[in-house]
Amino acid sequence: MNILPLLILCSLSLGLVFLAVFFWWVKSGQHEDLVTPGIRVLFEDAPVPPKPEPQSEQDNKKTQNQTITHE
């Protein structure tokens, strides 16, 4: 039972820390844009650049040896 006041103090201080962080986020503008996150899923991703072609005959042989075929 002696630990109960310490646990209450720890929980209250942790709650105050979370409350302070929440107000800091609100003050810094974290929650101002409510529209963009909902439509961000509709935006297209940037195109992936193609892989460069092998330069020499040795590179070409290495590429052929590294490919795995499933038959």
Secondary-structure map:
Blueprint: H1 4-28, H2 36-39, H3 57-66
Can you put this structure into words, describing what you see?
By secondary structure, the chain is mostly helical. The longest helix has 25 residues. 55% of the residues lie in helices and 0% in strands. The protein contains three helices and no strands. The model has no long low-confidence stretch (mean pLDDT 79). The N and C termini lie far apart (70 Å). The protein is elongated.
Condensed summary:
This protein is mainly alpha-helical. The protein contains three helices and no strands.
Please state roughly what percent of the residues sit in beta strands, choosing from under 5%, 5-15%, 15-25%, 25-35%, 35-45% or over 45%: under 5%
Proportion of helical residues? 40-55%
Give start-end ranges of low-pLDDT stretches. Answer: none
Shape: elongated
The oligomeric status of these chains comes to single chain
Mean pLDDT score: 79
Structural class: mainly alpha
SS elements, strand count: 0
Cα distance, first to last residue?
70 Å
The H-and-E topology, N to C, reads as HHH
Q: Count helical runs.
A: 3
Radius of gyration of CA atoms, rounded to a whole number: 28 Å
Report the major sheet. none
